[in-house]
Structure formats: C-alpha cells, structure tokens
Amino acid sequence: MLRTSPLGLPRPAYMVEEMLLFEEAVDRFIDQECVGHIEHWAKAGEVPRETWRKAGQAGLLMASAPEAYGGSGGNILHDIIVTDRLARAGGHELMISVVNMVFGPYVCSLATEAQKSAWIPKLASGEWLGAIAMSEPGTGSDLQAIRTTARRDGGDYVIDGQKIFTTLGHFADILMVACKTPSDDGNRAISLFFVPVGEVSGVRKGRKLDKIGLPAAGTAEIFFEDVRVPADCLLGGEEGLGFRQMMTNLAEERMVVAIESMAMIERALAETIDYVKTRMAFGKAIIDFQNTAFVLAEMKTQATAARVFVDYCVGRLLDRTLDGATAAIAKLQLSELQGKIIDQCLQLFGGYGYINEYPIARMYRDARVSRIYGGTSEIMKLIISRTL
Predict the structure, then answer these.
(1) Is 191 helix (H, G, I), strand (E, B) or coil?
(2) Which of 17, 54, 133, 295 is the most buried (most CB within 10 A)?
(3) CA 135, CA 139: separation in Å to the nearest integer?
(4) How far apart are CA 242 and CA 324, in angstroms?
(5) Cα(353)–Cα(286) distance, rounded to whole angstroms?
(6) How many CA atoms lie within 13 A of 31 on its CB side?
(7) What are the sequence ranges of the domains in the chain?
(8) pLDDT category of residue 2 using cuts at 50, 70 and 90
(9) Annotation: CATH topology of 132-240
(10) Between the CA of residue 132 and those of 39, 157, 226, 294, what are the distances in Å?
C-alpha cells in the first residue's frame, strides 16, 4: 500500500506521535487483512463478516466512541486516519467510514444513554453493521420531501415506506431511518429512528444494486411495511428533531468524501509516476516525454494545493469550527479534482489503464460516485453560493 505521499509535504501539526503510531497500526491491519483480498471482495460483492470482526478487535471500528460504551476512546482524528489509510490502499470498499463517520456520530453524540449502551458495543466489535437510510426514490438531496412515515401507536412507532441507495444496507444489522412524523412545523416534521433489523418484522431488503463502482458496498433498496419499533428507538427520545440532527453531522459526512478523494488522488499519482518511469516507448521512459512530465507536474500542483486545504479543514473539524459551507467547498473541490486526476492518470497508462486488474482502473470506477453521494456537486455549489 501507499505509505508516503508523492507530494512531499510535511505532516500536519495534529499528527502527533500517538496518532502516527495509530496510523502504523492501521497500516498493519490493512496489510494483513485487506490488501490481498480487495479484488476478491469486489468480485464477490461483499466483505466477509470476519474481516469486520477483526477490524473491531484491532480497534478500528467506532474508534472515537467512549470506552464506557465499548468504543476505543479516541477522537474523530482516529476515525479520519482509518478512512484515509483504507482509501490510500484501495480498501475504502470496506466502508468502515460509513460506520465510523456517518452512522457513528448519530449514536455517539445524539442518542440517549440507553441507545448508546445497547448499540455502540455491537458496532465497535463488528458484530453489527450500521447504515443510514435517508434517500428515497425521487427524493435524494431534498430530505424534506421524504414519504416514509412513522406513526405513534401506544408504546411503539409503526414505520412504512421505502428507501434507496442505502450504502451497506444489504448487510446492515441496524438502520438509522429518516421518517415523517406529524407536525405543523415543516422543520420539525422529520424524526430519525433506529431499526434493529433482526429484532423486528416487516423490513425487507431488496437486491444489491448493480453499480458502476464499489461493488462490495452492499448498496440496497429497503422496504418497510408495518415495522413496529419501541418508542425508545427514536433517536434522542424526542420527535421532530430529525432535520436538525441530520444537519449536525453534515460537515463531517462531507469531509469523509473529501478525505477519501484526497487519499485516492495521492495513490493515483504515486501509481502513475512509478508506471511512467518504467514504461518504455520509442526507446525511452514515457516520463521523459515533455507532455507526460508537464501533465504530471500540473496534477501534482493541483493535488498539493488540495492537500493543504484538506489538512486545514481537518484541523477545523478537530476543534469543531468547520462550517457547512467550507465542508461543501472541500467536498466539491476534492471530488471533482479526484475525477479529473484519476482520468488523466488512466490516460498515461494507455490500454493497461482500461484493464480492471490495474488499480488505476478500479480507482476510475470507484471515484465517480464521489460527485454524487454525500450531496451532489450541484448541491454543494448551491450551499456555497449562499455565502456569496
């Protein structure tokens, strides 16, 4: 796997010795449990549960969750390091970032004490996988238009509706489901519910969606028919907070995409630089052609500026001052740059870049969704435009 960046920048100040040691531990796990299996996972369309359990044993799952609830007692930087190193090695398809940095914060920061005690230990051990079920057919970014409902019935809520594009949904043991609940205030008409799939009836998982990339991510359509969950499955214990709760974590979710995109950019550059130094054409290495050198020089320049910005944003995320618009800038810039750079890198591989056994081909395949999930590039531009 790629251990050093081709950009030559110093590590940011927040990467203190403790974090560097954790990074080395993550790299060892990836070397032992991921690198030799990534292609098989993609072909099989899933990651074995045993790999998830080993990740839990290694302290990679829910790394920022408090030890009192079964987490590793770290902070968000531990989760960021796991996300970065997996993407750098091509192991992002394991989708630990979904559990740690998308699903995890809802449980760690917004759940009741009982909810934390019930579910963090299972997520941290790899016994359970968690997924977020928000998007619906016809309602992607427009979350206020969702049609899945939850109605109170005695001590329970009854959920009916349909979700789509749920990453890890095919494998998930617990879902965070966005539902409409009765309210005259549109801003308080959404509530979030934990749905422990194996403990209730009426949840039906559709087929795994056949996507361009990330074939092992278990992206699924999910149906809810008279799904009865106890009232204590309501996130935070109060109705109508769903929209506010979703907004709370948006900056972090968008940084997941930016961090993974940056790591894949660096990997693509490193793989391509190594390749053009050894690939011969017309009697010399293709890096000795001016066009090749200039294309790579431009890509390195763009990637270096992007890395500085990502590190800045991570620093602000760590001290809880990262605003939504800046996170949107990071997601927009990095996801778009990722697509551009990986495409240019693939071109330098020539025909070999189009062969799936080459990592650059898999990166090209997997990168496309970065401009869609977590908020499309168009939505990011809309958010940014409001600050003008």
Answers:
(1) strand
(2) 133
(3) 6
(4) 17
(5) 15
(6) 9
(7) 17-128, 132-240, 249-385
(8) low
(9) Butyryl-CoA Dehydrogenase, subunit A; domain 2 (2.40.110)
(10) 26, 18, 19, 43
CATH number of the structural domain 17-128: 1.10.540.10
Q: How far apart are CA 134 and CA 276, in angstroms?
A: 43
CB-CB contact of 202 with 140 (8 Å): no
pTM above 0.85, yes or no: yes
Instruction: Give the CATH number of domain 249-385; options: 3.40.50.720, 1.25.40.10, 1.20.140.10, 2.60.220.30.
Output: 1.20.140.10
Burial of 323 (0-12, 13-18, 19+ CB in 10 A): exposed
> Residues 32-73: pLDDT tens digits?
999 999 999 999 999 999 999 999 999 999 999 999 998 899
Q: How far apart, in Å, are the Cα atoms of 29 and each of 36, 98, 264, 376?
A: 12, 18, 19, 32
| Annotated catalytic residue, options 239, 253, 260, 266 | 253
Q: Please indicate whether residue 46 is annotated as part of the active site.
A: no
- Lookup result for tokens 């017309």: 282
Which residues does 268 contact at the CB level (< 8 Å), separation at least 6?
A: 341, 342, 345, 360, 363
| Contact (CB, 8 A) for 322 and 255 | yes
Confidence of residue 146 (pLDDT cuts 50, 70, 90): very high
Residue range 269-321, pLDDT digits in tens: 999 999 999 999 999 999 999 999 999 999 999 999 999 999 999 999 999 99
